[in-house]
Design a protein that fits this description.
By secondary structure, this protein is of the alpha/beta class. The protein is built from 11 helices and 15 strands. The strands form 2 sheets. It has a 9-stranded mixed sheet with strand order 14-13-12-11-7-10-9-8-15. Helix 1 packs across helix 10 and helix 4 runs parallel beside helix 5. The radius of gyration is 20 Å and the shape is globular.
Amino acid sequence: MGELKMLRVGIVGCGTIFPMHAISADFLDNAQIVGVCDVKKDRADAAAEKYNCKAYYDYKEMISKDILDVVHICVPHYLHPIISKYAIEAGVHVLCEKPMSIRYEDGLENVELAEKMGVKYGIIFQCRFNDAAQLVKEKLADGTLGKIISARVVLTWARPDEYYSLSDWKGTWDKEGGGVVIDQAIHSLDLANWFIDDEIVSVQAHLSNRGHSIMEVDDTAEGFITYKGGATLGFWTMNNYGHNEPIEIRLLCENGRVSMDYDNAEILMNNGERITGKSTKESGIKLEGGKDYWGVQHVREVADFYHAVENDTEPLITGREALKIQKLICDIYKKGRENFEMHSK
């Protein structure tokens, strides 16, 4: 029997989210991290030492020299489409952290480029892989719950001024693309939009900065979204709370109601039946440095993407699929910035 071919993996960006990608890639038996890259030399060197690979300080050098099969992109938002495009043009498969871009047009351009080049282009929305989310999606897909009538998302997290003072890109329109909506609430909105799975016909939104003095973007957002089939989605999100509360997603369906956070789901059917689900993590993996609110399923999405690369199939969350939430996020900002309110703390 021949030796198993390992996917050659590179990771661009060795900051906060890096461990979720590196530990997942290192855990899987069909991949080997051969290069890591960061413009901050100390970060790249430390990551390279930990994973016994080569350190780079220029992503172009790593992508052009290291004969990669897959590159993970874990950098500030505004760089996502730039580095993705470079890798796609080089014929390297791309797995990029959310959001795929700040502007919808940049995301669309890379999706079309990847499809033209025959390159896999995936975007991280790991919460779709949580067992709780999978249970709800299954009960919607098989008709158990019937159609969604109304949905709501509530997120109350803590991102004090100190959080923004430690970053040279967060809290900015040009580098982060926004605040609580594009960075924190995007996963909750993605799950609700994925559950409804219908064409959006209108987006209403209001954005404001109510509790921060050193950043310029939204820390509070609320809105109302309507879908072609009649479903509605209301949302209220803010990162001025005292700590990170579990997110709340509620679905009112024809045959029952859903109450869930990222890791737990409870379905109460109209006939009184109760169905519950709880997310578990893959056994044997220790996600050092991970945050509870990130969920535990980066490894499942990474495994799915590697499987797609090896078997020339589509990953579950393609760039084309991710355009749906990207369009919604961009529309929320388009509407919300028309009446954006900036309040001093």
